[in-house]
Design goal:
alpha+beta, about 325 residues, Rossmann fold, OB fold (Dihydrolipoamide Acetyltransferase, E2P), six-stranded mixed sheet, globular
Length: about 325
């Protein structure tokens, strides 16, 4: 098999399991996003792949070659953390070229590689700059350039944009996706932000309690999260608990008790449909997010239609609006 293959990997600390039977694969050139809340094991999995965390069980291989016993610096993987940890006593070029010097690359080749990778991240004139003069976004770009400079066969990024403000974060995640795809760079990107995950990923692996709960393309995971934990992780809000006969205020949505998702992107405001009262209106990213109440049951959706709090509207459930979760 080509690329990274993780099979039945388990990791524990002090006898307590942190990762439990993880199976994962990343193809050459693929961007896989690990998505999930803090404490679910995302960083531990990244460290295990890098060879920084011992495994209790399982195997990790690249192109079918088992990496057991291969030290981190010989795996050909790059790792970038949120705090980026730039060396304050080195200039930008010195930071980017650090790994190349450690690998023994001739100085003339180092200079050319540093120049090229700084150009890739849009910092072509920053080589002599002190890292103390960099903005947060510039520092993240330097850290990314340092990770890319050795030409890793797999790049792993652990919440690399987590410390940045929302606007800068949105811009940099767009740029990161363009850059990685232009390079054909295989990557694992860790985040707890579902917007970031859907923007960047070729595939998403959602983690919960030390396990992979759902894997698929962004559209597959969004349309069918399969569990409440995954639905919450990817940003769904309309999670409804059904009565023993499968009913709720919207009617009969299942065959028995359980939880269902009512997809906000499959709800519309339509004259003559089920009556609902608008209890919340917010403007987000150029669209109006509306919260409505149906007999005390609250649902959220986006609409292009102007609405006001207190207004009575018609709520229509389109095909495939209701998705069963956790066996419902």
């Amino acid at each position: 098999m080509n690329g990274l293959t993780v099979v039945a990997v388990s990791v524990g600390f002090g006898g307590a399991p942190v990762l439990d039977g993880i199976d994962l694969a990343v193809a050459p050139g693929e961007i896989l996003v690990l998505l999930g809340p803090s404490g679910c094991g995302k960083t531990t999995l990244l460290r295990a792949v890098a060879g920084l965390e011992p495994m209790v069980a399982g195997s990790i291989s690249w192109d079918g070659v088992d990496l057991a016993g291969v030290p981190p610096h010989e795996r050909g993987f790059g790792l970038m953390f949120q705090d980026h940890a730039l060396f304050p006593h080195r200039d930008v070029a010195g930071n980017v070229g650090f790994g190349l010097r450690m690998a023994g690359m001739p100085e003339s080749q180092q200079d050319e590689r540093v120049r090229r990778v700084l150009e890739l991240v849009g910092l072509e004139d920053f080589g002599p700059r002190s890292v103390s003069t960099l903005s947060g976004g510039e520092a993240q770009r330097v850290a990314l350039a340092r990770s890319l400079a050795p030409g890793p066969r797999l790049l792993m990024l652990d919440e690399p944009l987590g410390s940045l403000d929302r606007a800068l974060r949105d811009r940099l995640v767009d740029e990161l996706g363009v850059l990685l795809r232009r390079l054909g760079q295989a990557a694992i990107h860790v985040t707890h932000d579902h917007d970031e995950a859907f923007t960047l990923a070729d595939r998403i692996a959602v983690m919960a309690d030390g396990q992979i709960a759902r894997t698929g393309t962004p559209s597959e995971v969004w349309a069918d999260p399969r569990s409440v934990a995954v639905a919450r992780s990817v940003g769904h809000r309309n999670l409804l608990d059904l009565n023993p006969d499968g009913s709720c205020a919207l009617g009969r949505l299942g065959t028995g008790p359980g939880t269902v998702l009512v997809r906000g992107d499959r709800l519309t405001l339509q004259e003559g449909a089920r009556s609902a009262r608008v209890i919340g209106v917010a403007f987000r990213n150029g669209r109006t997010e509306v919260t409505v109440s149906v007999d005390g049951l609250e649902l959220s959706l986006f609409t292009d239609r102007p609405v006001a709090r207190g207004e009575t509207v018609g709520l229509h459930l389109a095909d495939e609006a209701v998705v069963g979760l956790d066996g419902a």
